[in-house]
From TrEMBL:
Family matches, as PANTHER family: LIPOPOLYSACCHARIDE EXPORT SYSTEM PERMEASE PROTEIN LPTF, SLR0882 PROTEIN-RELATED
Keywords: Cell inner membrane, Cell membrane, Membrane, Transmembrane, Transmembrane helix, Transport
Keyword Coiled coil belongs to the record: no
Pfam families with a match to the protein in the record: LptF_LptG
Protein name according to UniProt: Lipopolysaccharide export system permease protein LptF
Principal cellular location given in the protein's record: membrane
GO cellular component, one term: ATP-binding cassette (ABC) transporter complex
Keyword Protein biosynthesis: no
Length: 377
């Protein structure tokens, strides 16, 4: 304050400069995060779609299940995707500030490198909370629902498996179906081909039309109309040809079974209740994702240093290497907990504490460089 009791212009200008600094940092972090997330999410959906379409073409996934499974898989990977988004968005914003010499202006105006911790934390903490929700709650729920959906699709009866224009194997692997035309308004399909193998004899049926029929006792039949059946033994000339106006083929559902529960499919509460090593290792991974996201957001501050006269990608390569090392260390800790090499209590915090000390070391190195640079000038 001055002699009249009012705030000095220098103090007001410093406060105003710091407010501008915080708003500019938050705005650039948010813009980068939106762009990075959209790009990464598009890559995720594309890769998942290609893989699921390949599985559908191979018959291991029903075509109508592709969209649902893609949604479940996206929920499962969103925690990792958001963690990477947080790291890259902070890294890109600060690297741009170095390349455009904006960081030099902030440092010369009294804003130290440590002052970036506040804006980064204000931007990162809400995202870390969202990552924790996805990692601890939504990801295991999505994996469990995906497994249940796959099981339910596998347990459909043979008639429900038939897809026009594609050969489909029955649930018992004794029949192969082919339907040329889909069901019309009357529920009948056109031009049906069925191949069966029973007691070493091959039977082939071709019919002009067919439809599904359910009897009072619950048995389901695929009823064929106006067709022929060819039956014989491979390697011999003994074949029989029969014509029919109506032929009913019983369709069977697979035996109902539950979802095979692995630690990945269990909720976080169930993992806490079951203290086996593999359950604790899965819990370590889920807890480690949000903790690593927070550490990585702070690590992006010293890792973003870029010499405007040097290469533009050197720091990005080193930052990517840091992310891969951190992720691999989490996987190694998970494996060590399963093997009993380390306890869960040590594994759940050791890697994060190690990376936090690495963060402090990088900060001290960068702050010392800038301090010596100003002293030399």
């Amino acid at each position: 304050m001055n002699a009249s009791g009012q705030l000095s212009p220098v103090f007001l200008s410093n406060v105003k400069a710091r407010m501008i600094f915080r708003r500019a940092a938050q705005r650039e972090f948010t813009q980068n995060a939106v762009a990075v997330f959209v790009a990464l999410f598009a890559i995720l959906l594309t890769t998942q779609l290609i893989r699921l379409l390949g599985d559908a073409a191979g018959g291991s996934v029903a075509p109508e299940a592709v969209v649902a499974l893609m949604g479940f898989n996206a929920l499962n990977y969103l925690s990792i995707l958001l963690s990477l988004t947080l790291f890259i968005s902070v890294l890109l914003a600060l690297s741009r500030a170095y390349r455009d010499s904006e960081m030099a202006v902030w440092l010369s105006s009294g804003v130290s490198l440590v002052a970036w911790v506040g804006p980064v934390l204000r931007f990162a903490l809400p995202l870390v909370a969202v990552i924790a929700v996805f990692s601890l709650v939504l990801a295991p729920w999505a994996l469990n629902k995906s497994a249940e959906y796959r099981t339910r699709m596998d347990q459909r009866d043979d008639a429900a498996r038939v897809t026009p224009g594609a050969f489909k194997e029955s649930g018992t692997a004794e029949r192969v179906f082919f339907v040329e035309g889909g069901a019309g308004a009357d529920g009948r399909v056109r031009n049906i081909f069925i191949s069966t193998v029973q007691h070493g004899r091959i039977g082939v049926m071709a019919a002009a039309e067919g439809f599904s029929e359910t009897h009072a006792n619950g048995d389901r039949f695929l009823v064929l109309g106006k067709g022929r059946r060819y039956e014989g033994t491979p390697g011999t000339t003994e074949y029989r040809v029969m014509e029919f106006d109506r032929y009913a083929v019983r369709t069977e559902s697979r035996e109902l079974r539950g979802v095979a529960k692995t630690p990945k499919h269990l909720s976080t509460l169930e993992l806490l209740q079951q203290r086996q090593p593999d359950h604790l290792a899965e819990l370590l991974w889920r807890v480690g994702i949000p903790l690593s996201a927070l550490n990585l957001a702070l690590l992006a501050i010293p890792l973003s240093f870029a010499n405007p006269r040097g290469g533009r990608t050197n720091n990005l390569v080193f930052a990517l290497l840091t992310y891969l090392i951190y992720s691999n260390l989490l996987s190694v800790s998970q494996a060590w907990v399963i093997q009993g090499t380390i306890s869960f209590g040590v594994g759940v915090w050791a890697i994060h504490v190690f990376m936090f000390f690495a963060l402090l070391l990088l900060f001290s190195r960068r702050v010392m460089v800038f301090s010596w640079g100003r002293l030399w000038r």
